[in-house]
Write a structure and sequence with these properties.
Radius of gyration of chain B: 18 Å
Helix content of chain B: 25-40%
Mean pLDDT of chain B: 97
Largest sheet of chain A: none
Oligomer: heterodimer
Largest interface: A-B, 11 and 15 residues
CATH superfamily of the largest domain in chain B: Thiolase/Chalcone synthase
Distance between the termini of chain B: 11 Å
Radius of gyration of chain A: 11 Å
CATH architecture of the largest domain in chain B: 3-Layer(aba) Sandwich
Mean pLDDT of chain A: 89
Number of helices of chain B: 9
Shape of chain A: globular
Distance between the termini of chain A: 5 Å
CATH topology of the largest domain in chain B: Peroxisomal Thiolase, Chain A, domain 1
Low-confidence stretches of chain A: none
Order of helices and strands of chain B: EEHHEHEHEHEHEEEEEHEHHEE
Strand content of chain A: under 5%
Number of domains of chain B: 2
Number of strands of chain A: 0
Number of helices of chain A: 5
Number of strands of chain B: 14
CATH class of the largest domain in chain B: Alpha Beta
Chain lengths: ~70, ~300
């Protein structure tokens, strides 16, 4: 099961600086969290390393928030 | 032994302002500068075709190297966007436009971003087989011919350019034996249909996963470590791709230059454009690694004599 800390670790591994507190923006869009399209590629890449699970293209379009990612990996 | 003696380059004068173009897609200047890395994208003019870019690069090479064009024994063009859709082969058109001897061996290589690394190996082998001492490897793959300017994924990335590399016995860099890999099951990640179609995430993941693994395997095979290498000249896919590969290979990030502000992703020309700036440098051991269309990826070592 993926935890919020893991997402924080993935962002750090990808050298992505997020200026907001993730727990306060679980339902915000990635854009509102400050992530651009390439940040999202990097985030999912690092999450794949952590979880060992590849998110297929068919699923990724439905993952629009941090909460969506947590739920997908629950 | 045959190696790299000199490199000529050509960038079309016509250029797209990528910051202005990005605004059309609601992308910020910061995104373009930090993540893509290209503020300007050279574009061939309406009266230019692939062979014209190639000729300009060879002319630059001839002026830099003092090579007499009558001494050229082979001319090979790496492209997937030749004149007339690739028939006849662009290398024949280039041979004609340059007025090279009819005895010149001329053929094209159909590869994308891995084309320079693999092309060096092919031409070096061909020269050894034929007993040639001077041959030119051209890269000229102007994607502006196939990019849909309304496609956000591709139109912010690619620029047009050409390079011409002189392979000769009297060389500056020796060329080792490359490591070459292909995964055709994923070819649809980057494919030309009516226009160029790219699955950005697939290409990103492919490069971020496979290229560092190949570079590490190549170094192991050479019985070297990343610290033995002075410079890693990666295909300049985008700022983000160079960044993630550098991160995964590890070590000093300054060894992984990104230099595409005025060029964009120039496909098979990106590595020779970088390498052309290293002839007078103090970098002796240089890894080159190209990856993209196919999907295809290839890595090799160049060593200064």
């Amino acid at each position: 099961m993926l935890k919020l800390d893991d997402i924080g670790k993935a962002l750090k591994s990808a050298s992505i600086d997020v200026s907001v507190e993730l727990e306060e923006h679980l339902d915000s869009s990635f854009e509102d969290v400050g992530l651009d399209s390439l940040d999202i590629f990097n985030l999912f890449l690092e999450l794949e390393t952590i979880t060992g699970k590849v998110v297929p293209d068919s699923d990724i379009d439905s993952l629009l928030t941090i909460a969506d990612i947590l739920k997908y990996h629950s | 032994m045959i190696g790299i003696k000199a490199i000529g380059t050509y960038l079309p004068e016509n250029s797209i302002d990528n910051i202005e173009q990005a605004a059309r897609f609601n992308e910020t200047e910061e995104f373009i500068k930090k993540k893509i890395g290209a503020s300007f994208l050279p574009k061939l003019s309406d009266d230019q075709d692939t062979s014209d870019l190639a000729v300009k690069a060879v002319e630059d090479l001839l002026s830099k190297s003092q090579l007499n064009k009558n001494d050229i024994q082979a001319i090979v063009v790496v492209t997937q966007n030749g004149d007339f859709g690739g028939l006849p082969h662009t290398s024949a058109i280039v041979q004609g436009k340059l007025g090279l001897s009819n005895s010149v061996s001329a053929f094209d290589i159909s590869l994308g971003c891995s084309g320079y690394v693999i092309g060096l190996s092919i031409l070096k082998s061909h020269m050894q087989e034929m007993g040639f001492t001077n041959a030119i490897l051209v890269t000229a793959d102007p994607y502006s011919k196939i990019v849909d300017k309304n496609d956000r994924v591709t139109s912010l990335l690619f620029g047009d350019a050409a390079t011409a590399t002189l392979l000769s016995e009297d060389a500056i860099f020796d060329i080792s034996r490359p490591m070459i890999q292909t995964d055709g099951s994923e070819f649809e990640a980057l494919v030309k249909k009516d226009s160029l179609i790219m699955n950005g995430r697939k290409v990103f993941n492919f490069a971020a996963t496979n290229v560092p693994t190949q570079i590490k395997a190549f170094l192991e095979k050479q019985e070297m470590t990343k610290d033995d290498i002075d410079l890693f000249l990666l295909h300049q896919g985008s700022g983000a791709i160079v960044d993630v590969i550098a991160r995964k290979v590890g070590g000093d990030k300054s060894k992984f230059p990104l230099d595409i502000e005025h060029t964009g992703n120039t496909v098979s020309s990106s590595i020779p454009l970088l390498l052309s700036k290293e002839f007078e440098s103090d970098k002796n051991k240089i890894i080159i690694s190209g990856f993209g269309v196919g999907l295809s990826w290839a890595t090799n070592l160049l060593e200064r004599r």
